[in-house]
Structure formats: C-alpha cells, structure tokens
Amino acid sequence: MTSLVTSTATSSKWLQHYLSSFDWEKFWHLITSRFLSLIFLTLLFFVINVVGKWILHRSFKRYLKPAADGTGSNRLQTISMLSLNLFHYTVLFFWIYALLSTLGVPVGTLVAGAGIFSLALGLGAQGFVSDLVTGISILLEQQFDVGDTVKIGTIEGTVTAMGLRTTQVTGADGTINFIPNRNITIVANRSRNDMRATVNIPIAPTTPVEQLPAIIRSVNERLMPEHPSVIGEPALTGVVTLPTGELVYQVIVVAKSGSQFALQATFLTAYLKAIREAGIHLPTHTPAPVAGQ
C-alpha cells in the first residue's frame, strides 16, 4: 500500500513538472500557424480552381458555336468537359499534397517507402486509370460526342456529359445513367448518319393492298415539303410479316438523325387517316396463323 502511494505521488510530481516545463506558448503558436496555413491553402486552391475553370469556360465558349451539322460544336463541348475535369482533379491532387506537407507528413517518403500501401493504392487506382484511358480513346476515335443519341449496352439515350471517369447518358424518360468509361465497349451512335424511319401500316389478308401505293404516294407529296429533314423519296417496301406475326404494309422514310421518331409518327398518322378516308378498313392487329391450327 505504501509503495502504491509513493508511486502515485511520484507520477503526480512528474506530470506537474512536465506541464510546468511544457512550452505552451510555442505549442499554441504552432497549432495556430498550421491552422491558418491550412485555411490559406484551402482558399488559395479554391480560388485557383474557380478562376481556372472560368478561364477554360471562356476560352471554349467563343468556339462553341453550332456548326452546320452540329458535329463540331458537340466535339468541342466534349473536349471542354474533359478539360474542366482534368483541371479539377489536378488542382485537387496538389491541394491534398500541400495540406499533407503542411501537416508535416512526408508524402514523398511514404509513397517511395510504403511498398504495400503503394501496391494497394495502385490496385485501387486501376479502375480510375482504365476510365481515363478509355475516355481519351473515345475522344480521339470520335466514337460519340455530347449531344449524340447512343446505345451503350442496354442503355439508350442522349449523351449529356462526358468526364474522365464516367459518361452521362439521359434516357427518353429523363433518367440519368452514369456509365464508367471502362464499361463502354460497344457503342451504337445514332447521330452520325442518316436514319431510317420504318412506318408499318397494319393490314389484313383481305385488305386491298393494290390501292395503298397510290394513297401513300399522295400523302408523301403533301408531307414532303413540310418536312425538310426527309431525305429523298420514301421507299415502299410492300407487304411484310413482322416477327410478332403482324401483317403490315411497310414504308421506309430516310431522315436526318434525330428526326426519325417524330417523322415516323407523323407519316403513320397521315397514312392511316388517308386510308380510312378512302374507305379501306385496317385492323389494329393481325396475328399470323399458327402451325397446326
């Protein structure tokens, strides 16, 4: 018991001596100076980030004028987004490096000496590097640009943004899909060439199909001047059986990319109206005969 009391008294005296001899002024000065340095660096890199993005945005803005086909403008917008992303990540990297250096963390020594940490960091960054390389390849190969209508895997929509890591594709219903660039393998770009709008007019086996070409050509002559996006004369394919078993009279309208869906609805509506006015009855659905029945 006596030894315990003696040990406690000794520890108490040692603690009092340490606290009394500790240079509290130097300690608080160090804490305050480091804190102010961190705030200054944060504000500095924040200003650099804002000003740099503003300069890049202003630099690209003068060239972001719609071209005749819109391709040049889309490509410049894609390059602009990638440049802004690259600048943002560069500023972020140097900001973190400056903060660690201010706190006295030997960043260079850690990266060079911590083999396991470096290996783990390298493995973790593989996905980021793959996204970056794939994004640059997409840009150089001009696979698609911002504003293009594409199908990537099972996702269809319009490319609204392209970054170093992900590509944003907005679907017809407004859903924004974030696709990692490394997952982009097969791309169907529907904004580069002229597109085909397939108009299927449902018919029955008893429909007088020989009367349809004249009616369809009459409608085409009326609609063509109203829709300059139509290229050439619509082609009358004739009677076709769809995979669903429906019997249709098919017309192919070649149009500029982006307008094919609206033209498909417009021409189909006009065809149905003209055929109905001619006294021809059209079914809503005609299933194909099933073998054995």
UniProtKB/TrEMBL annotation:
Entry's transmembrane regions: 35-56
Top-level taxon of the source organism: Bacteria
Domain Mechanosensitive ion channel MscS: 129-191
Localization of this protein: Cell membrane
Membrane protein topology class: Multi-pass membrane protein
One Gene Ontology term of the molecular function aspect: mechanosensitive monoatomic ion channel activity
Principal place of residence: membrane
Domain (Mechanosensitive ion channel transmembrane helices 2/3) ranges: 86-126
InterPro entries named in the record: LSM_dom_sf (IPR010920), MS_channel_1st (IPR049142), MscS_beta-dom_sf (IPR023408), MscS_channel_2nd (IPR006685), MscS_channel_C_sf (IPR011066), MscS_channel_TM-2 (IPR011014), YbiO_bact (IPR045276)
Keyword terms, alphabetized: Cell membrane, Membrane, Transmembrane, Transmembrane helix
GO CC annotation: plasma membrane
Family membership noted in the UniProt record: Belongs to the MscS (TC 1.A.23) family.
Record function comment: May play a role in resistance to osmotic downshock.
Protein name: Small-conductance mechanosensitive channel
